[in-house]
Write a structure and sequence with these properties.
mainly beta, Porin
């Protein structure tokens, strides 16, 4: 009987490393936790050297609390006027795209994330008299964020980045007037801690 116990115990000791090694080499090891993600946000930036504010949001899916892929959209909420020859124009603008974010150490109280949004938008110059002039543009917006975990499903973020705009074709404003640094405040809702 003792020999069976010794062989059994030795078998368990030998099997443990084999089992562990098999798990680390599997193609599909641990499962990935997916959850939904939503975030209203406010951004401060510049248009032609003047302060500009944008309101918007993000809606998407999060994998393992680290990788987020979302739809991102922002609209200009401040008023901007431009003068071209004898005409005055009011500017309106909106843009959106696909946002990808990677969260570093998402379980820590204070953590960091890197974000890249790629997409496009439209800027419209509306004269006091006459028809509107619109132009589409390409958008690239890298961003770095500091996140504070407030609850298991809610965090707030402060971010800095740069909005790069290309392809604007309007006589009153060009892409360089719309490209500028960005500071953002985001309220993020989602399943952050494996809930």
């Amino acid at each position: 009987m003792k020999i069976f116990l010794i062989i059994g115990f030795a078998g368990l000791l030998l099997a443990a490393p084999v089992k562990s090694e098999a798990q680390s080499q599997a193609i599909f090891g641990d499962y990935i936790v997916y959850s939904s993600f939503g975030a209203p946000k406010l951004q401060m930036s510049m248009i032609d050297g003047n302060p500009a504010a944008y309101a918007g949001g993000q809606l998407g899916v999060m994998a393992d609390q680290r990788l987020i892929v979302a739809v991102d959209a922002d609209w200009l909420i401040t008023s901007h006027r431009f003068q071209n020859e004898d005409e005055s124009y009011r500017l309106s603008m909106g843009h959106g795209g696909i946002m990808m974010r990677f969260n570093f150490n998402p379980d820590d109280l204070l953590n960091y994330s890197a974000t890249l949004t790629t997409g496009g938008g439209q800027v419209t110059a509306s004269p006091d008299e006459g028809s509107d002039r619109s132009s589409g543009f390409f958008l690239l917006n890298p961003n770095a964020e500091v996140n504070l975990n407030l609850t298991n499903n809610f965090r707030t973020s402060l971010g800095v980045g740069y909005r790069l705009v290309a392809g604007t074709d309007l006589p009153v404003i060009d892409s360089s007037d719309l490209s500028a640094p960005v500071v953002s405040l985001t309220l993020k809702f989602g399943g952050y801690f494996g809930n």
